[in-house]
Amino acid sequence: MKVTVHTLQKKKRNAEPIVALTAWDYLFAELIDQAGVDVVLVGDSLAMVALGHPTTLPMTLETMLHHAQAVSRGVQQALLVCDLPFLSYQESPQVAFQVAGRIIQETQAQAVKLEGGYSAMVDTVSFLVQRGIPVMGHLGLTPQSVHQLGYRQQGKTPEAAEQILTQARALESAGAFSIVLEHIPKDVAAQVTQSLTIPTIGIGAGPACDGQILVTADLLGLTSKQPPFAPPYLNLRSKVQEAVQAYSQDVRQGKFP
Ligand code: KIV
Ligand code: NA
């Protein structure tokens, strides 16, 4: 059965953990969807993972649409969520609505995700939700703010933790259906999770979140820069290298074909 935003609310009520992964193309989208994940996110981390940029900031709306369309062709069951890329939505709720609307219309994504919980973003979430677009929030380490935050863990002081909690509550009140909590202390994530009726999805935020998300390339050990909080489930990088070396050797020695 197709996963919807309501399925996720129900999972939180029933204390069933939510499983989420990212995808950037048809091939991996189909694989992880058929393996039974609940949520597929077309994360703008694809700018780094699939396109080789140093940050997520160079991601454009057109590139995002291109990847989200490919992912969408592979996803049958999971809830499909697409990131709003940097510069495409921050200016105003109206601009964000046009961009989110294009994503929903042109990719068949069921929801969008945006970063941040200051009042401007809370207003934007409310504007989109009131016009029929489900929004996932994203707090803690928000990579589109890398030049303000770095890639450091967030929410480490009591004041910073309190701010995350306040912003999470504000996003919930604005109508967000879920919130990603990235790279914050596990106690802070636990407190946010207990305080909200909408599900939290953690990445580097400990076990108390209502669900977990990883960048699929990190899960599979495909990236050269593995984040400290995401030990790979497979070392696919070395498996790929072994296969390429074996093939090269066979071709060079006249054993293949
Ligand atoms: O872009 C991304 O992959 C994300 C997840 C890490 C939540 O936003
Ligand atoms: Na992202």
Automatic annotation (TrEMBL):
It is an enzyme of class 2 (transferase). One of its GO terms (molecular function) is metal ion binding. One of its GO terms (cellular component) is cytoplasm. 3-methyl-2-oxobutanoate binds at D44, S45, D83, K113. It comes from the Bacteria. NCBIfam families: panB (TIGR00222), PRK00311.1 (NF001452). This is 3-methyl-2-oxobutanoate hydroxymethyltransferase. It comes from Lyngbya confervoides BDU141951.
